């Protein structure tokens, strides 16, 4: 690709504000109505934040944290921090007070932007342990306490005082002084294992990744992005926020993850960035509806889906569609697929999926109905995108081909190594981990994989691989994905390291389980009681056996336990991108796991 034409993220925004001016940059809900900001208004608001931060003594290189759920203020605060030459430290809104304390202290953050009272209370709990924090800046208005100074976002921005020519000139001087290799952000890894590490990314890291992805995925100007993943995570930060600005698109902020379905119809997005969990849920809902149809309609659905799949393979992989197939597909699309696509609005061009492996069958399903998902792969340490599938280069079961100037190789133990302009500067205040992360200049990804015809295939996380007592190496995620495809199973966790066989913790799909209980007239007082009822256990034995029929003998689930509630971010069992924290779950449900092995032995 051509050299990235900007020195920094604020340099990019300044250019886009001058070029696009009144074109819409962001859209968000305010007091029940949708409100917009143009590119020039957005940049102006960011400059006001930068002005306020400089008046508080923030200098280039200082650290400023954002502890907030997604909202337009998050992006304005971030851009303001960067326009002041400072470093943004995102903190997950779901973090506990102890986790917030660690991040703020380790990063040396001096000011914290917060969403409102809920996050302020977290700070109050740890105020004596965060001596460097001078001030909290809230997006919402409420009264603070003298022990922790508080101001509002509008007060800091001095929203009623326009930026003067002199202030603009001074801020442009600060922006001009930011170099491509300057530290831009410290993102603390969500920590599926151990203590979070602060990943240091430069302006060049994120600019390169955004522009290389735009070029590879052929993202044009004027796209509408629906944003709902946490901005604290690098996937949404780069591909759902910096990338739209770099391409001249508009970012529309969803009301919440729960409201995505109705927001899609309101916003009519053209591009959506998501994680596999959303696609799994939509896939499950569609199939629930299909199961309720008559036998004839169920058979018809399977037939048209097979036509859709053949068409996708012919068009995007073989690059040649026979006339008879094109005609069949046109009929299938008109009768069935077009109606399914209405759930996504009428303008969706494609979705992007990352953060965790997407089940191949689910991916093929969405392509078949005309909702292409371009699956990619990357890490916080790589800004994040390293590779992705495109319309021109598509292979199911892979995470695509590398971005420009990005290389992969496979180490002797099967670990994927990567290098490219998007690879991090290192870990903040941790030289030892920074050294350990690299091998001869190549980043160790921690993932096991292979390269097939230029396409990258990920088989599992290196540290997640299960080695059974019999010496078999088993990747748990593909088995978990198979289990989650079942309409009665919402979440699954497979265990078996150094054990004679595999076991699983299963979270039932609540609606389906309650329907079953009603149908069988099961009497119970709560979910804890329901999940151990014999008819329920027998149902799940049958579901697990159906999955086992698709697995090699050593991969089959010999015992399982049903859990009465979902794994959640709040309980610390999932990362913010909904990946299972294996260590937390194995520790939390240690007794249940042990029982599954002692039961079989007795």
TrEMBL record:
AMP-dependent synthetase/ligase domain span: 13-428
A single Gene Ontology CC term: membrane
Q: Does the keyword Transmembrane apply?
A: no
What PROSITE patterns does this protein's entry cite? AMP_BINDING
Q: Which reaction does it catalyse?
A: a long-chain fatty acid + ATP + CoA = a long-chain fatty acyl-CoA + AMP + diphosphate
One annotated GO molecular function is: long-chain fatty acid-CoA ligase activity
Q: Which SUPFAM superfamilies match?
A: Acetyl-CoA synthetase-like
User: One short Pfam family name for this protein?
Assistant: AMP-binding_C_3
Please give the InterPro entries that the UniProt record associates with this protein. Answer: AMP-bd_C_sf, AMP-binding_CS, AMP-dep_synth/lig_dom, ANL_N_sf
What are the alphabetically sorted keywords of the record?
Answer: Fatty acid metabolism, Ligase, Lipid metabolism
Name by which UniProt lists this protein: AMP-dependent synthetase
This protein's species is Geomonas paludis
Q: What is the lineage of its organism?
A: Bacteria, Pseudomonadati, Thermodesulfobacteriota, Desulfuromonadia, Geobacterales
